[in-house]
Specification:
Low-confidence stretches of chain B: 42-53, 206-212, 261-265
Order of helices and strands of chain B: EHHEEHEEHHHEHEHEEHEEEEEEEEE
Shape of chain B: globular
Largest sheet of chain A: none
Helix content of chain B: 10-25%
Strand order of the largest sheet of chain B: 5-6-7-3-8-9
CATH topology of the largest domain in chain B: Rossmann fold
Radius of gyration of chain B: 24 Å
Order of helices and strands of chain A: EHHHHHHHHHHHH
Number of helices of chain B: 9
Number of domains of chain B: 2
CATH superfamily of the largest domain in chain B: P-loop containing nucleotide triphosphate hydrolases
Strand content of chain B: 25-35%
Number of helices of chain A: 12
Largest sheet of chain B: 6 strands, mixed
Shape of chain A: globular
Mean pLDDT of chain A: 85
CATH class of the largest domain in chain B: Alpha Beta
Helix content of chain A: 55-70%
Oligomer: heterodimer
Number of domains of chain A: 1
Distance between the termini of chain B: 71 Å
Amino acid sequence: MDHGGPSHHRSAAGSDESQSANETVIQAGGGSFAVHIMDLWAYRELLRILVWRELKVRYRQTLLGAGWILLQPLLTLVVMSAVFGAMLRVPSHGVPYPIFVLSALLPWGYFASSINRACSSLLSNAHIIRKIFFPRILIPISAVLAGLVDLLVGMVLLAGVLLVYGTVPSLRLLFIVPLTLVLALVALAFSLWASAANVRYRDLSFVVPFVTQIWMYLTPVIYPLDLVPGRYRFLLEINPMTPVVSAFRWAVTGDASPSLPPMIAISLGLSGVLLFGGLIFFRRIDRDMAEVI
Amino acid sequence: MSDAIVIEEVSKRYRLGASAPADTLREAITRFVRARLPGRRPAPEMPSAVARDRREIWALRDVSFSVARGEVVGLIGRNGAGKSTMLKILAHIIEPTSGRARIRGRCASLLEIGTGFHPDLTGRENVYLSGAILGMRRREIDRKFDEIVAFSEIERFLDTPVKHYSSGMYVRLAFAVAAHLETEILLVDEVLAVGDAAFQRKCLGAMSPGANKGRTVLFVSHNMDAIRSRCGQVHCFDRGQLVFSGPAAEGVDYYLKTSDLPAPVTAISLADNPAAQCEGLRLLDITLRNPAHPAVGPCTGDPLSIWLRYRSTRAFASPGFSFAISDMRGIELIRLTTLPISGFPIEGLHPAGAVELFLDELPLVAGPYALSFAFVRVNVAVVFALPNVLQFEVAPSDVYKSGFKPDQSRGRIVVRHHWSHAPEADPI
């Protein structure tokens, strides 16, 4: 249970007699919230291994192995470009539609698959949770982190598509790095809620794929934001994924709506609140997880 | 001598039925909507059933003891006495309801064999995965890797996914990882019962009184010989309370004297188990009996009766009972269901009934096994299941009349058989 780092939670009262540096105190309520979060650092090695396991297992089982990571967004891109770009002629502000859609599809795909994977992650690791202690939050976190590899491969695809269209990206493209961080935090916030809630409500893992499917159409992924009539636009603007997806698109294509910066601020704030709430909710479920899972 | 583990008035309460507000989102939403619809009462919940379910079970009640550094301590008691709950609390897996425990030093727990093993990963990969989950650092695993592999004796299959391993290979690799845990404190559940001698020497070299190397071990077992030979002190639990603490030999005597069941015979009361009931049906108990040698209990080659008593307020449509026996690695060895496997139809449940599964000859070698139960609607669904509801020990017997009593070191199953040997030309 102790991974060599600091003990799970040290005694909150530092006044205990003969307290050694290595003492673990186990009591109802566990450690304080802050201590709980700080402990994650001690388990970084386990997190690394869990991410590695996630990737290994995922791509060993598929027929095409790692090739699948590239093929999946490529096929989606082809279908979407054909249906929405060529046939339905969705406006894309002068940007070639494949670039327009892929620049938003990548962050969206990462977001949706992170939540879906995280949602079932705790239950599929129930056998470990019942038998050994480690911060269970590492499990949804590793699901969210593992998806970054797919996103990275998707970026390679995007670079290929940019090359095909002879588009020279500007330095703006570097914004993708901080934007990916924002994206991962938003994905983590929702993943914490989904994974913990799924421990209590087992049917959630059937609902989440459906919800993310609908959600994609409420996010300007395949169409530009200004295609939405003004009075309905608030629906997209309260969606924390709208600014994230729009900002990715801006970084790639330079296409932006003037309200993007304040929207990103709002999205960040909202995600921060969701993330914090998610951590607390997760902790609550975590307390008797081994008994109910 | 300083204490490695100090346990102060630790209690663990389970609330029956009360802590589950809803199991599915659908249920939760239905309940939420119902409660808010005008003119509708909240979902009717059978008040009497609710009142009954608010009962509490104290799996542990005000347990205090301490373990000195370097001591090897056994926790004994009947099934459900609280010893495994104690171990799980110390292992941080479940939280105590009150009280606290202090652990000084790095601590690892072995509650099952192959914790964290993933079937699709290779042996090599699983060493790293399981090692990390058990609490080893990467450098530590790197350093001991060759030793672990040598100990497991599966070098040739190191890059084969473990799902292709035989169960023996799997267990050896799992034990090899566990044996190389080098923490100051080790919490060990029954798993060691299936460990072979080499593992026990390696991992628990310290586990003999007087000859320890400073490692503190807390050890749960039903095997009184192992307890007597390895532990210095024992703590005996009964119904959540500590009833005896003292030297191992005295503790074992106390346990054998006070446990009202002759050691090998096994029965478990399910009346207080919330998992052993559903709307309308309540299980009372499961009893294993050896009609040929009642004093011996389950025994290789002897008949075995598995007897389940229940109370039911409903007849149920196409009810079915299922019993399965697995070994301690979780491999299911036998599963029998009234329907379809045994072709024994049950028309409906009785208000007070019993079902018996009678094995003419128990085809299992000596050793520990677990019995699982499920109540099903035949070919439709499992209504509820009690995995590993009861662990029992099969007593050795010279079934082959060879002077050799088969145990789990050589297979799991006994079969009636015979050999022949003749020159090839002659018809056998």
